[in-house]
Amino acid sequence: MENNINSKVLDKLTKICLCKVISKATIKKAIKNGAKTLEDVQKVTGAGSGGCRGHRCTPMIEDIIKQELEKEN
Ligand code: FES
């Protein structure tokens, strides 16, 4: 339980898309709400549309999608 709370706090503090200041928690929420591809997540969250055009955040978003979809299955 405590670990779960800590990881939730950490997800909020961990910024995945630095350009648009989008947290890991926001990315996970988008996936939970049905986003299944990089394009879906980018469209819903705005991640990847910052100054670096997704150069920094795209690989991390792809990893999170993979992890979250594996958890669902
Ligand atoms: S870090 Fe996401 S667009 Fe630059």
Automatic annotation (TrEMBL):
Sequence ranges assigned to domain BFD-like [2Fe-2S]-binding in this UniProt record: 16-66
Gene3D superfamilies (alphabetical): BFD-like [2Fe-2S]-binding domain
Protein name: (2Fe-2S)-binding protein
Taxonomic placement: Bacteria, Bacillati, Bacillota, Clostridia, Eubacteriales
